[in-house]
Design a protein that fits this description.
This protein is an alpha+beta fold. It contains 12 helices and 24 strands. 25% of the residues lie in helices and 27% in strands.
Length: 469
């Protein structure tokens, strides 16, 4: 979903390449940190009070605004809202608040495809060209399986430079398909993993072609309604939807409404909304193996490359198999983590960016597995003169095409990564700064004359140096 993934002090939602569209460095770093943790101890799961303490460590630093659900053995341990669903009307978040899910949508798309396979209407090993006419020669080796596992090689259209210029324009799957239909493949199908929203929009196109109806209707009739997920559906802004959260983004220190996105664009890659309570129903249905055949379920959760299955990441973390996925879409960041062997579920849905639902959700999982974690504490902040901060202003290249711009607006130092929003940073020493909304640190390198020559971004155990341009 907006994301769906790749680097850093980058807010979880990126303006140029929204989160339902690619995986963020932040998510990759969080996953690396989680994998490095020790196996769970035999200690008892955390109490609701201890979970609340961890969550408040985030909310008190403006690092999370939204809804959290933790469930164990099919029973709710904690289910609460934090902050506002609508800041303009001072409407608080509750467990019934509906959030856009971003890429969490992909797991529902994966199930829809497998259900159609169970119904004999398609096969996951069918060539994509069976359903796309005319079909490029380069696509002839591509199967539906490749689309589901991000191994097709079809480039991600949300990473195209033209993408942000078209976010307000309606683009149903047949129109979106034209954006990448004749683009060269990034690699030979099946040879690599590369997160691609194009593949999942194409899956939505195939679902509609096979069923003769809309993607939204097929999900509702065959998946959502049978499970009782009455607060989940395709997010159409024209619909009057009770308890719908508004999406927000920070621009510097200012909170503003998220940039508009026409919801025909994300489609089967990131179009759904839901609540934490409905996602618990989803988890319970998965645990009970409802909807699909046993063979289809096995395929649904079998990872291929980079631990990716059909809309889920499946891997060993903290000594147990965890099945999870995140999402991000204009104004929203989300995460669902399932630990089937422990019958454990954690859901974090946020409507203010930047946010850290993935990191928070993973910490709540660790606490429920009996691990000890420190409560997030607000770093000590010091005041520097405007003159002292001016020496840090400049552009710092973290990669050839990825630059962290540092500017001074009034007496506030601001960072802005390529294609992303502004993030204020605050001094903890003469040359070390931190963003309040992201768990990271920036250390500037200073020469003998006091001029900044570079910086190091430290996030989730990773050190990323950057030279000043």
């Amino acid at each position: 979903m907006n994301l769906l993934g790749a680097p850093l002090i980058v807010a979880t939602m990126e303006r140029a390449i929204p989160m339902w569209f690619r995986r963020s460095f932040l998510l990759l770093a969080a996953a690396a940190l989680a994998a490095a943790q020790t196996a769970p101890s035999a200690a008892t799961p955390a109490t609701p009070q201890r979970l609340e303490e961890q969550i408040r460590g985030y909310t008190s630093q403006d690092r999370f605004n939204g809804a959290i659900l933790v469930a164990k053995d099919g029973k709710i341990v904690l289910s609460k809202g934090y902050g506002m669903a609508n800041f303009e009307w001072n409407v608080p978040v509750t467990p019934e608040t509906k959030f856009r899910l971003g890429s969490i949508t992909k797991q529902f798309t994966g199930m829809a495809v497998l259900l159609l396979s169970d119904q004999g209407k398609l096969k996951v090993d069918d060539p994509v060209c069976n359903y796309v006419q005319p079909c490029p020669d380069a696509w002839k080796p591509i199967t539906i399986h490749h689309l589901l596992t991000h191994t097709s090689g079809i480039p991600n259209f949300t990473a195209f430079q033209s993408y942000t210029k078209t976010m307000r324009q309606a683009s149903p799957p047949a129109d979106t398909l034209k954006r990448f239909l004749n683009e060269p493949l990034d690699f030979q199908p099946g040879s690599k993993f590369s997160y691609s929203n194009s593949g999942y929009v194409l899956l939505g196109y195939i679902i509609e072609k096979v069923t003769g109806g809309s993607y939204a209707d097929y999900l509702r009739r065959n998946i959502l309604a049978p499970i009782g997920m009455n607060d989940t559906g395709y997010d159409d802004p024209a619909t009057v939807l009770p308890r719908r959260a508004a999406g927000y983004e920070h621009s510097g220190a200012t909170l503003q409404n998220a940039e508009y996105l026409d919801m025909t664009i994300p489609h089967a890659a990131g179009s759904l909304y839901s609540t934490t309570l409905d996602l618990m129903k989803w988890d319970e249905a998965l645990n009970a193996h409802k909807i699909l055949s046993a063979e289809a379920y096995k395929r649904y959760f079998t990872p291929v490359l980079k631990n990716y299955a059909y809309g889920w990441t499946v891997k060993m973390e903290d000594g147990v198999e965890q099945i999870n996925h995140g999402g991000g879409i204009n104004g929203f960041a989300t995460r669902i983590v399932r630990v089937p062997s422990q019958h454990l579920l954690v859901v974090a849905l946020s409507n203010v960016l930047p946010a850290q639902p993935d990191k928070l959700a993973q910490e709540l999982v660790k606490l429920m597995l009996g691990q000890n974690l420190p409560v997030p504490e607000k770093p000590a902040e010091i005041k520097l003169s405007k003159e002292a901060m001016e020496k840090f202003v400049g552009n710092y290249a973290l990669a050839p095409t990825f630059v962290l711009a540092v500017t001074l607006e009034g007496d506030q130092l601001i960072t802005q990564a390529t294609g992303q929003g502004k993030v204020p940073i605050f001094a903890k020493s003469a040359n070390t700064f931190f963003p309040k909304v992201i768990d990271a640190e920036i250390v500037f390198d200073v020469d003998a004359e006091g001029k900044a020559t570079g910086l190091t971004l430290i996030q989730n155990g990773r050190r990323m140096p950057a030279k000043r341009q």
